[in-house]
Amino acid sequence: xxxxxxxxxxxxxxxxxxxxxxxxxxxxxxxxxxxxxxxxxxxxxxxxxxxxxxxxxxxxxxxxxxxxxxxxxxxxxxxxxxxxxxxxxxxxxxxxxxxxxxxxxxxxxxxxxxxxxxxxxxxxxxxxxxxxxxxxxxxxxxxxxxxxxxxxxxxxxxxxxxxxxxxxxxxxxxxxxxxxxxxxxxxxxxxxxxxxxxxxxxxxxxxxxxxxxxxxxxxxx
Length: 221
Ligand SMILES: Nc1ncnc2c1ncn2[C@@H]1O[C@H](COP(=O)(O)OP(=O)(O)O)[C@@H](O)[C@H]1O
Ligand SMILES: [Mg+2]
Known about the structure:
Layout: E1 2-12, E2 18-29, E3 34-38, H1 45-52, E4 60-65, E5 68-69, H2 75-85, E6 86-89, H3 101-106, H4 116-129, H5 145-157, E7 163-167, H6 175-190, E8 194-199, E9 210-215, E10 218-220
Parallel strand pairs: 3-8, 3-9, 6-7, 7-8
Antiparallel strand pairs: 1-2, 1-4, 4-5, 9-10
Helix pairs in contact: 5-6
Bound molecules: adenosine-5'-diphosphate and magnesium ion (MG).
């Protein structure tokens, strides 16, 4: 599903000095695999995930989704590729405060041309799976962090993205709520998605098909 080769990325310090973050990352994730990338804070995990998900451009290297090269496309073509292939789960949930839980999830179907009734039905199945169906008509500020993250997860997978990218998906959660999210990620992989989780938490590696450490800008087995 996902193949990245030779990814290089630097940021610039205010002095203009380059800060190398990725120094040649190669990564392949097949359908049904869950790959965990661990590394200490500042090692470049979020940068790697943003590059893999086409949110940020690398300075060098290539990314393919299902053997289609997506890293050389225009900005708008990249955003279409993202919409078609990628679901993101972030540490901060970014639910819209003026929409209910259910409406936040259904929002993900807006640009897919999917039937609204069908999207609502699918959203309710997912909310039920994550144990938050009874919260569907609540607004984000009425929900706990764990509930908000479950709802954000439902939104990320509503369109069944074949590639799921999760950045510290349990970063704001206690252990019990974190376990729910990790379980849900593993279920998506078993259902055939390619899943990449970056996290400093060791639980991210549990049930992963491969675990890499990001150190010095490269992935180590
Ligand atoms: N937009 C940016 N501009 C400049 N430096 C950045 C930017 N984003 C991240 N960095 C730097 O890149 C390094 C890696 O950051 P990040 O990918 O967020 O690491 P991690 O997610 O592993 O904590 C850090 O040194 C960070 O300060
Ligand atoms: Mg990070």
